[in-house]
């Protein structure tokens, strides 16, 4: 579950299908140049985002999730029928944090069509009902074991206040308060993190957090939180609570 403070206006109008087909309003030359540069940057970034669809090597072999030695698959936004983002804002990588969420709603999905529907439902909720730019998360993990590109790497998310411009937000679709997500999902999440590190999107010394560590929420659910607290790079954040030494008290 996420957050997005500012609601932006109309976006750049780019999506995976129209990478080269974006037209610009008529502006004066200087503005046009600036916009062209911005536009080129957007195109570059979007081509990265849209180019994610691929099989990944089983990088998380040591990650403890076990299971068959099968690579996880990363699906693009187009694969699940995402709408265009209203606006895309980037931050410089690599991201120093990875933050794990559960969706709570929608519930766990087991087939790819259902998981794709869940992604669209989350996008609807965030983009339409809440008025955010896009689905809040960077990536979704389905019960089918597939990884779904949300906002993608190095795109400012809307999933954890103060961390949105420095983290990868991964939602494991389902309610994981008492149940542990299936191994195939845990493995996919670990593969995604390893992929992000290998590709330079995630800092090799990243800190892994559960959403509840940065906001008052039960997300990512008690059972899932317990699980990720055993994963490499899990970091206990020390709350900076000032405790007066006993000796100073009368
Ligand atoms: Zn959350």
Automatic annotation (TrEMBL):
One of its GO terms (molecular function) is zinc ion binding. Gene3D superfamilies: Peptidoglycan recognition protein-like. It comes from Drosophila hydei. This is Peptidoglycan-recognition protein LB isoform X1. CDD domains: PGRP. GO terms for biological process: innate immune response; peptidoglycan catabolic process. It is found in: Secreted. Belongs to the N-acetylmuramoyl-L-alanine amidase 2 family. Residues 1-40 are annotated as: Disordered. The keyword Transferase does not apply. Residues 72-215 form the Peptidoglycan recognition protein family domain.
């Amino acid at each position: 579950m996420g957050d997005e403070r500012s609601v932006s206006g109309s976006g750049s109008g780019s999506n995976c299908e129209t990478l080269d087909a974006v037209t610009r309003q008529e502006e004066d030359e200087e503005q046009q140049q600036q916009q062209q540069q911005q536009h080129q940057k957007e195109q570059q970034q979007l081509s990265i985002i849209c180019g994610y669809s691929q099989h990944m090597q089983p990088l998380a072999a040591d990650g403890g999730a076990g299971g068959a030695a099968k690579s996880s698959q990363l699906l693009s936004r187009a694969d699940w029928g995402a709408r265009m983002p209203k606006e895309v804002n980037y931050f410089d990588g690599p991201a120093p944090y990875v933050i794990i969420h559960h969706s709570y709603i929608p519930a766990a999905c087991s087939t790819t069509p259902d998981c794709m529907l869940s992604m669209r439902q989350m996008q609807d909720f965030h983009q339409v009902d809440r008025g955010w730019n896009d689905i809040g998360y960077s990536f979704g993990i389905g019960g089918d074991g597939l990884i779904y590109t949300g906002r993608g790497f190095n795109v400012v998310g809307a999933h954890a206040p103060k961390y949105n411009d420095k983290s990868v937000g991964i939602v494991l679709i389902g309610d994981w308060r008492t149940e542990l997500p299936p191994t195939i999902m845990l493995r996919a999440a670990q593969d995604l993190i390893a992929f992000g590190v290998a590709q330079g999107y995630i800092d090799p010394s990243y800190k892994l957090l559960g959403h509840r560590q940065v906001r008052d929420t039960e997300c990512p659910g008690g059972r899932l939180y317990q699980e990720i607290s055993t994963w490499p790079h899990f970091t206990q954040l020390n709350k900076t609570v000032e405790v007066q030494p006993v000796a100073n008290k009368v």
